[in-house]
């Protein structure tokens, strides 16, 4: 799938639509999910045009990948999730029910999340 710069996260990154920001650096923007699936549900979005993890892993430089995942860890820490734990999820493609086609990592926590899938 080709990257479409009209996706909602690209618009958030450009400041065209608002978000509840929790963190931003040179590599990533993190904000609260509009329809949370856990008491804490934050999305971390890289500042690079890529559709999903599959795309990101091919396009991004090793340095960018390192910095991006470091940002994910910083966000989880700043959210106070380190001690009790958290889950990170990223969806690629239809079988994973990906709905926004700009790569993003979900950080979920704030309660015991149980097993991986219901
Ligand atoms: P995915 O299904 O992995 O593509 O996840 C997309 C996520 O983006 C869903 O959890 C949505 O609730 C969330 N979402 C969609 N639009 C917005 C928005 N404008 N602000 C924050 N989160 C959003």
How is this structure best described in words?
The chain is of the alpha+beta class. It has one domain: HIT family, subunit A (2-Layer Sandwich), CATH 3.30.428.10. Helix content is 25%, strand content 21%. Strands 1-2-3-5-4 form a 5-stranded antiparallel β-sheet, covered by helices on one side. The structure holds adenosine monophosphate.
Summarize the structure.
This protein is an alpha+beta fold. The protein has helices spanning 8-13, 53-59, 62-78; strands at residues 21-24, 28-32, 40-46, 86-89, 105-109. The radius of gyration is 14 Å and the shape is globular.
Keywords:
single chain, 118 residues, alpha+beta, HIT family, subunit A, 5-stranded antiparallel β-sheet, 3 helices, 5 strands, 25% helix, binds adenosine monophosphate
- Just give the CATH class: Alpha Beta
- CATH architecture annotation: 2-Layer Sandwich
The secondary-structure element order is HEEEHHEE
Distinct small molecules bound, one entry per kind: adenosine monophosphate
**Record field, number of beta strands:** 5
Radius of gyration: 14 Å
CATH fold type: HIT family, subunit A
**Going across the major beta sheet, what is the strand order?**
1-2-3-5-4
Number of H/I helices: 3
Which shape, going by the Cα principal axes?
A: globular
């Amino acid at each position: 799938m080709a990257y479409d710069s009209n996706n909602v996260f690209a618009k958030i990154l450009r400041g065209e639509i608002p978000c509840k920001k929790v963190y931003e650096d040179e590599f990533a923007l993190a904000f609260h999910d509009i329809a949370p699936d856990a008491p804490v549900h934050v999305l971390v979005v890289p500042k690079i045009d890529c559709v999903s993890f599959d795309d990101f892993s091919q396009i991004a430089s090793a340095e960018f990948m390192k910095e991006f995942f470091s940002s994910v860890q910083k966000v989880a820490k700043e959210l106070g999730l380190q001690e009790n734990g958290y889950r990170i999820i990223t969806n690629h493609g239809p079988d994973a029910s990906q709905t926004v086609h700009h790569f993003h990592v979900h950080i979920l926590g704030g309660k015991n999340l149980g097993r991986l899938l219901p």
